[in-house]
Design a protein that fits this description.
Helix content is 69%, strand content 7%. Strands 1-2-4-3 form a four-stranded antiparallel beta sheet, with helices on one face. The protein has 212 residues and is an alpha+beta fold.
Length: 212
Amino acid sequence: MAKNIQIPGFITKLYSILEDQVNNHIIQWSPAGDAFILVNQELLESKVLSRHFKHNHYSSFLRQLNMYDFQKIRNQNNQQVFWHSNFQKGKEYFLNLYFCRNELIMMKRNKAKKFSLARFQQYLMTEISSLKQQQGNNEMKFTQIVNQHEILLQQHKMLYSDVTCQRSVFDEKFDRLSSLVYHICQPKQEYDGEISGYLLKQDESEYGNSQI
């Protein structure tokens, strides 16, 4: 399997860019040839990256360098310098010593990521199923609460009706008692006259009954 692994396209393109002296004012080998120097980042984006890659973003270029373990330092001119032990001027055969092996490792990592992704998808499906079940239980509880509320509402209506009836009876009794208290509190003569008239009516009624 390892024999079929080729040097990554990014590495071969980067090497050819550095070998092309036309780009020396933008990107070039270090004097020792064991690293390369980024001379002009803006020209790298506008002139080089767009010609050799599918993008012209320095951030993507830097991400690729980090992925292949390039180390970034700065020289005495405060320029960005990128170094890798198997990336050297005039020693293109060194690329096979690391980058092919690194590509194989990356393929294995991607396979592991796919496996992890499958497990993660399975985990998500389990969580979704659990959430649906929990939602069903919550809906059932909510329905029970609504039904209980309806029962309580009916009980409340019945209780309100009973209280209203009792209030009506109470008002009627209160009116009678109020009327009785009013008559009791009238002046004594009027009260005595009413009592006498009441007793007279009672005597006449009894006398009539005896004659019969």
